[in-house]
Specification:
This protein is of the alpha+beta class. It has one domain. The protein is 21% helix and 40% strand. Strands 2-1-3-4 form a four-stranded antiparallel β-sheet, with helices on one face. The termini are far apart.
């Protein structure tokens, strides 16, 4: 088991886990599933929040994930808040995710961009 899961800041792994919430502003009409109302655009970087490298990684994630959603039913989107992983908390054995081998879940905090 890896003592330093991805996204945990430490000497061996300086990348931090971030995500941007994208909200659908409209969906195509017609039969079938046209996507969820929101989507998380994930990215990892060691750059400080607000730096040029951070902004480039954030925009690349937004472009990638919004492109997927626009191909599959969204007609537009709005960029929501950006959050960073600040830690992990234990998952209770009564949680459905516990049965799938997930013993902890990420805790996110909003960051200003």
């Amino acid at each position: 088991m890896n003592p330093f899961p991805r996204g945990t800041p430490n000497k061996m792994n300086q990348e931090i886990h971030y995500h941007v919430i994208l909200h659908s502003t409209g969906k195509e009409s017609g039969p079938g599933f046209k996507g969820f109302d929101e989507c998380y655009a994930y990215f990892f970087t060691a750059a400080p929040v607000g730096s040029e490298e951070f902004k480039q990684e954030r925009q690349k994630a937004i472009d990638t994930f919004s492109g997927q959603q626009l191909k599959h039913g969204w007609t537009g989107y709005k960029v929501g808040k950006t959050e960073m992983e600040v830690g992990r908390e234990k998952v209770d054995c009564l949680s459905p995710s516990y049965e799938y081998g997930q013993r902890s879940k990420a805790i996110f905090k909003e960051v200003g961009v």
